[in-house]
């Protein structure tokens, strides 16, 4: 399963079709794409923290959703109307304020549905902060 879009094309697609993802400045960036995989970097701001100085669950959920979507379109092309139908996330550790990476891989890519898993780690660390599975609906051609 080889990607059909490059890192540069994916970042341009997010900029043009989903500019709201950068409303408060550029905090999301696609950093790599490979066969069945993609990785996104998240540079959280202090507004992404919750009490206890940890990155909030909604911020981690957003990172996961955007990264899984990017992984899918990297492999099927720029389909703006592919939508999340399910996303389940498990928060495993408290990440402090600092860059995170979300590595996603496609588990199944069908004609109408795709299933992916995602692992969030602090950049440069191997300990998983959160793990998720996601299902996306792919519109008919």
Question: Overview of this structure, please?
Answer:
Strands 1-2-6-7-8-5 form a 6-stranded antiparallel β-sheet. Strands 3-4 form a two-stranded antiparallel ribbon. The protein has one domain: Roll (Thiol Ester Dehydrase, Chain A). Strand 7 and strand 8 form a beta hairpin. The protein has 2 helices and 8 strands. It has helices at 7-17, 57-76, and strands spanning 28-34, 37-42, 49-50, 54-55, 83-91, 100-109, 113-122, 128-137. Helix content is 22%, strand content 40%. The two termini are 19 Å apart. The longest helix is centred in the middle third of the chain and has 20 residues, at 57-76. It is of the alpha+beta class. The mean pLDDT is 93.
Secondary structure topology:
Layout: H1 7-17, E1 28-34, E2 37-42, E3 49-50, E4 54-55, H2 57-76, E5 83-91, E6 100-109, E7 113-122, E8 128-137
Antiparallel strand pairs: 1-2, 2-6, 3-4, 5-8, 6-7, 7-8
Looking at the overall shape, the CATH architecture is Roll
Count of DSSP E strands?
8
Rg from Cα:
14 Å
Helix content: 10-25%
Order of helices and strands: HEEEEHEEEE
Low-pLDDT parts are none
* Whole-number tally of structural domains: 1
The CATH class assignment is Alpha Beta
User: Assembly state here?
Assistant: single chain
DSSP summary: helix tally: 2
Give the amount of beta strand, in percent: 35-45%
| Largest sheet: spatial strand order | 1-2-6-7-8-5
CATH level 3 topology? Thiol Ester Dehydrase, Chain A
Q: Sheet with the most strands?
A: 6 strands, antiparallel
Estimate the global geometry from the Cα principal axes. Answer: globular
Q: What is the assigned CATH homologous superfamily?
A: Hotdog Thioesterase
The overall pLDDT, averaged over residues, is 93
Distance between the termini: 19 Å
